[in-house]
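--- STAGE predict ---
source: upstream dedup step, 1 unique chain passed
mode: sequence only
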Amino acid sequence: MGCRALLTTAALVATLGVTGAAGIAQTSSEDKVLAQKQGGFNPDAVRAAIASGDAAASRGDLAEARVNYDKAREASTLLLGFYRNLSGSFRGLDARIPREMDTKGRETQALLAETNLRLAALFRRQNQQQMAVPLLVEVIKLMTPAKPQGQKAYQSLLELGFVETEFRGASAAGQ
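--- STAGE serialize ---
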């Protein structure tokens, strides 16, 4: 009798699992709230926040620009961590998911670097250079000095006087 109840329970759970998976597969793009460009939680939403910050900065509204850049920075930092966690969780189980998460992670990492550069420029514009330094160092850490964003960040550190040695590029560094 106990075996029959166990088999019935297993069959019921298996049926629920199959029906639940089918329900998930049938969601429309309208149901995917987090995938939307405006108000979503994805790289496009980060881009929208950066664009709003740029628009505010060009109008001279630096306070609004900072709010938008801070939103973009917070969202990209969270997304980056979530993409890394998901990638690691599925590694070895389904190669497609880590590949997707790694791609989204690299995209988000570049957006975080761009946001940091804009926020650092805003701080420099407000004569708060000391606030720009950690952001610029983070850009170099995220993108490496070999990438254009890393080079731009290092150049800003050089202009601020935080570093003194000019970086001549990855190929010339060993000479």
